[in-house]
Design a protein that fits this description.
The chain has 149 residues and is mainly α. It has helices at residues 3-22, 29-57, 64-85, 92-123, 126-148. The protein has one domain: Four Helix Bundle (Hemerythrin (Met), subunit A), CATH 1.20.120. The chain has 5 helices and no strands. The radius of gyration is 16 Å and the shape is elongated. The two termini are 29 Å apart. Bound molecules: fe (ii) ion (FE2) (2 copies).
């Protein structure tokens, strides 16, 4: 699998988890469990993405502006996650903030799939895209352990 397929698989999982979370209510076991899985996966995904795909794209003049934009959206997502972690789940504000996070992340993933991947195919050749897929997987595991610890 190349890096695009791996990223898309993660994105689809994030979309599904977010859909499930908006259907939960209050400070429930289910909301707690799903949010924990989602937050850890989104954080390690973004970090590994920056260490693989974006670290190559920042090297090319053509893809620098898009890379900076994507990285700033990672920061936005991580700020939302911090806000959610420090808000009581039984507070109605939690779901309102979660929906803003969902909109922002949906937008970000769509942009990656539509614009970033296309740009990247001009800059990174097919063999490199496969190697980056394996590297992404490895980096994500490391990041996941770091987020857990
Ligand atoms: Fe991203
Ligand atoms: Fe992504």
């Amino acid at each position: 699998m190349n890096i695009y397929q791996k990223l898309k698989t993660d994105h689809d999982r994030h979309r599904e988890l977010m859909r499930q979370i908006v259907d939960t209510s209050g400070d429930s076991e289910e909301r707690r469990r799903l949010f924990e899985v989602l937050a850890r996966d989104v954080e390690s995904h973004a970090a590994a993405e920056e260490q693989t795909l974006y670290s190559e794209l920042i090297e090319s003049v053509e893809s620098q502006p898009q890379t900076r934009h994507s990285v700033s959206e990672h920061k936005e997502a991580s700020d939302y996650l911090e806000e959610l972690k420090s808000t009581d789940m039984s507070n109605p504000a939690w779901l309102m903030t979660f929906k803003k996070f969902q909109d922002a992340l949906e937008h970000h993933m769509k942009e990656e799939e539509n614009d970033v991947f296309e740009l990247s195919e001009d800059v990174i050749d097919d063999d490199r895209a496969v190697a980056l897929g394996a590297k992404f997987e490895g980096r994500k595991e490391v990041e996941k352990r770091r987020v857990e610890g």
